[in-house]
Amino acid sequence: MLKTIGVKSVEELFSDIPETYRLKFEDWLRLDIGFGRPLSEVELKRLMDEKLSKNTVLRTPPFMGGGVYPHYVPPVVKYTISRGEFLTAYTPYQAEISQGLMQAIFEYQSLMAELLEMDVVNASMYDWGSALAEAVLMVARVNKGRSKFLIPKNTNPFHKRVVEAYTRPHGIRLVEVGYDRVTGEVDLEDVKSKLDSETAGVYVQYPNFFGVIESGVKEVFELAHERGALTVAGVYPVSLGLLKPPGELGADIAVGEGQSLGLGMNYGGPHLGIFAVRYDMKLIRQMPGRLIGLTTTRDGSERAFSMVLQTREQHIRREKATSNICTNEALMAIAAAVYMSLLGGTGLRRLSEINYYNAHYAQMKLSEAGLDTKVFESDFFNEFPVSFNGVGLRYREVHEGLLARRIHGGLYVGDYYPELGETALFAFTEVHSKDDIDLLAGTLSEILRGERGVP
Questions:
Q1: Would you give per-residue pLDDT tens digits along the chain (455 residues)?
Q2: Sheet strands side by side (includes 411-412)
Q3: Residues 382, 337: contact at Cβ < 8 Å?
Q4: Is residue 332 domain-shared with residue 350, that is, in the same domain?
Q5: Which domain holds residue 28?
Q6: CATH code at 415?
Q7: pTM, full prediction
Q8: How far is 386 from 437, CA to CA, in rounded Å?
Q9: Of the residues 340, 361, 384, the one at which a domain ends
């Protein structure tokens, strides 16, 4: 390498760095950093234990909603993805030597396609936000000549920011559709007024950002198809144990977040962006990511897995690539596949029911604590907004009170929806017990009464 670039030695390579700033190998032990010497494993463990002991340990799982949720992750999921053949396996560029990895991805695609009732699933996107952004770009490529995309105001605001960043250089106009202040659902009349011949596609998230179950998804999609627009559904996969899948509602494209399927919260990532389409080659050819298919060896004696489509690749098509996503979340997809295999259809339905009933029990208890838990009149799944308007405290003060009592409260949404004022989004899953919910309600009641908490 040195010879190729015309340099005689490593010292010459770094010769532009002044001598006084260069560290000689024999000086490294005398550096005035850290502990001034290497530490033994025992010393390091004791040091780390001391640091970790300073962390606050919550009394309950967090109640913050907004797109990432605490769910139970079975140990077998963690064990499987910790195996070396999965953990160190990168995206299969040399597909013929990656049979095991491709089979795992194929299983993920198949399970996800069944859950969504969609025909083709890729492997895979970074997260929900990037999946939605790629869907918008894809819609614009398929519906050439149309530059407008409708996105409801009750869409996750974090996802919308990603979409704005992705689409701005492409000249795509994102047009916001309002929501009904009584129901929290997409305003159907506003959709009708903004759908026109310039509209490339329409997005609906269900349950939406407020946790509200959108009852008019099918009607919105039918209106869009009448105007020649493509439809994109955003889904929370755990909810599909009770709600109709996007394929049944008429979605051309479905996106979502696989974090709830055995991935854990992971401090905000990595997550798993779900991306699926109905069977239409115009759509399939424009999908980002990869598709793994099942075939046979040339003589037909054995089955084999192959990469059947990767037209998006920048290393193949350069600037003509359908996407410049540079990896896939294969390890996360495998985790989701293991998780879905463990639950099966019956288990997923039961999980969905627990999430639904826990949230409704929590609504009742928080209402008894003197809070307005019916910001919207519609039914909801997993999470709902709670209004703190008129309680005499700003929500951030309430949140600090909860943290002082080692409880992590909901997500303040006033910054994104000023019309809702002092409102926070609280989420409840299968990991929240009845005692956890009762504790939250009782603690909120204490804070509203002005009682001092004991950390």
A1: 999 999 999 889 989 999 888 877 666 666 667 777 778 999 999 999 999 999 989 999 999 989 999 999 999 999 999 988 888 766 656 656 678 888 989 999 999 999 999 999 998 789 999 999 999 999 999 999 999 999 999 999 999 999 999 999 999 999 999 999 999 999 999 999 999 999 999 999 999 999 999 999 999 999 999 999 999 999 999 999 999 999 999 999 999 999 999 999 988 888 999 999 999 999 998 998 888 899 998 899 999 888 887 655 555 666 677 777 766 678 899 999 999 999 999 999 999 999 999 999 999 999 999 999 999 999 999 999 999 999 999 999 999 999 999 999 999 999 999 999 999 999 999 999 999 999 999 999 999 988 644 44
A2: 383-387, 423-427, 411-412
A3: no
A4: no
A5: 10-52
A6: 3.90.1150.10
A7: 0.89
A8: 14
A9: 340
The dihedral region occupied by 390, where left means phi > 0, alpha psi between -120 and 50, and beta the remainder, is left
The one-character DSSP state at 209 is T
The answer to whether residues 263 and 335 belong to one domain is: yes
Six token digits for residue 313: 């690749």
The reply to whether 350 and 334 lie within a common domain is no
> Among all chains, which residue has been given the structure tokens 């950002």?
209
Indicate the number of domains in the chain.
Answer: 3
Which residue in this structure is represented by tokens 């407020």? 210
**Coil vs helix vs strand at 219:** helix
Beta strands in 252-387 (DSSP E): 253-257, 273-277, 291-296, 303-309, 383-387
Q: Report the CATH number that the domain containing residue 122 is assigned in CATH.
A: 3.40.640.10
What is the DSSP track for 51-73? Answer: HHTTSPPPSS---B-SS------
Tell whether 196 is covered by a domain: yes
Q: Is residue 82 part of a domain?
A: yes
| Closest of 18, 59, 158, 42 to residue 442, by C-alpha | 59
Q: Are 251 and 354 within one domain?
A: no
Altogether, the residues listed in the chain come to a count of: 455
Q: Is 123 left (phi over 0), alpha (psi -120 to 50) or beta?
A: beta
Determine phi and psi for 257, rounding to 5 degrees.
-120, 125
11's tokens: 């010292």
Residue that finishes a domain, picked among 340, 364, 394: 340
User: Same domain for 280 and 323?
Assistant: yes
354 plus 308 within the same structural domain: no
322 and 227 part of one domain = yes
DSSP code for 290: B
User: Within this chain, do residues 242 and 259 fall inside the same structural domain, yes or no?
Assistant: yes
To the nearest 10 degrees (0 to 180), the angle between helices 434-448 and 330-368 is: 50
Q: Is the peptide bond before 152 cis (omega within 30 degrees of 0)?
A: no
